[in-house]
Amino acid sequence: MSASVYLHPIGLASGPQAEDGAAIRLAGSLVYASRFALVVRGDGAVLHRRVFGTTEAADALGELANRWDAALASEAERQWANLQLVHAPLQLEERTIRFDQPQVMGVLNVTPDSFSDGGEFLEKPDVGRAHAAAMLEAGAAIIDIGGESTRPGGAATWEGDEIERVIPAVEYCAAMGAAISVDTRRAGVLEAALAKGAHMANDVSALRYDPRSVELVAKSGCPVVLMHAPGASDDLHDGVGYTDVVSEVFDMLRDQRARAIAGGIAEERILLDLGIGFGKSLTDNLALLNALPLFHALGSPLLLGVSRKRMIGALSNEEPAHQRLGGSVALATKGMDAGVHLIRAHDVAETVQARNVWRGLRDAALTDFGQLPAI
């Protein structure tokens, strides 16, 4: 019987002092973990589960070799190391994006049918330019430019149309000195954008949609975000449902990451995105958000895209996209609490403000316990 192992951080702390030093720093973030659940799954069921603290890690991981096999134990050891991996800064030419605190990626949609802005930035380039400038001024580390709507039911975009939408935005963002990501699943769009000053790829198909994409990213050396979506063709939301969404999304991201590395993409240039809202029910999305810390075990920085998503309306009076700021910030903060490295947001100023307050709390937590009187 085939079995897989998953190492879930389940006890998080604001600082190591809270656990008398018995905590690990999670993926180089400002989040610490002190308790973990080691889970073995097979044939759609949980076969083994053990909860342990940091001082018991060697015993818990060693138990796998005795009860299961060396390969499973080796994978658990790899995940344990990945949970503690400090990710190098993202180097986008002369721009350095550090991952020792959550960074904010600002969204610039240049489509006629975006769910969030209704095509405003495509039809009015000056408005798009001003919006990009405002996001940079507010603290966006990266501007993510998208020329195709990937909402459920959206029609696929012809590559030529997508290039015509994206390139002007790349050019005016490059003129501002911005770090630029291109949200596309088409190699031709990415190639044209890189030539005009873009720095990284954000591929919602995890490089599965276009056969040229893996080779192009490997050759260019640009960083790439691999996002989970169940559909591999035009409809990214097309899926058959999940038996256990957390383990299945984990497994697919692990496999696509391995595929990218085998195709020549440097391991340190890969980021991962769980694809919240893509072919997933509200229940699926909530389960993934509650399991966010697990995905550090894959060994890559994490990007979280929850801004203005449909799930916010589903949880709160069916507000339209432009009225989902509160929910967007709440979910972004959930990501920060889980050690996510990059938050993709439409409302940059508000998200950066939330991050700055969150950062202040974390910094204070590193010294709070040192101020307690001796007992």
Short description:
By secondary structure, the protein is of the alpha/beta class.
Task: Quickly list its features.
alpha/beta, 38% helix, four-stranded antiparallel sheet, 375 residues, eight-stranded parallel β-barrel
Description of the molecule:
Helix content is 38%, strand content 20%. The chain has 12 helices and 14 strands. The chain has helices at residues 57-67, 70-83, 120-123, 125-138, 159-175, 187-195, 213-220, 245-262, 282-290, 310-315, 325-337, 348-368; strands spanning 4-13, 24-25, 32-42, 45-53, 90-92, 95-97, 103-109, 142-146, 180-183, 200-203, 224-227, 270-273, 302-305, 342-345. The protein has an 8-stranded parallel beta barrel, surrounded by 6 helices. Helix 4 (125-138) packs across helix 5. It is globular. The N and C termini lie far apart (53 Å).
Note the overall shape: globular
The end-to-end distance, rounded to whole angstroms, is 53 Å
In N-to-C order, the SSE pattern is: EEEEHHEEEHHEHEHEHEHEHEHHEH
Unreliable stretches (pLDDT < 50, length at least 5) are none
Q: Give the spatial strand order of the biggest sheet.
A: 7-8-9-10-11-12-13-14
* Share of helix, binned: 25-40%
SSE class: alpha/beta
Number of helices: 12
| Beta-strand share of residues | 15-25%
Largest sheet, strands/sense/barrel:
8 strands, parallel, barrel
Radius of gyration: 21 Å
Oligomer: single chain
Mean pLDDT: 92
By DSSP, the count of extended strands is 14
Helix-strand blueprint:
Elements: E1 4-13, E2 24-25, E3 32-42, E4 45-53, H1 57-67, H2 70-83, E5 90-92, E6 95-97, E7 103-109, H3 120-123, H4 125-138, E8 142-146, H5 159-175, E9 180-183, H6 187-195, E10 200-203, H7 213-220, E11 224-227, H8 245-262, E12 270-273, H9 282-290, E13 302-305, H10 310-315, H11 325-337, E14 342-345, H12 348-368
Parallel strand pairs: 7-8, 7-14, 8-9, 9-10, 10-11, 11-12, 12-13, 13-14
Antiparallel strand pairs: 1-3, 2-3, 3-4, 5-6
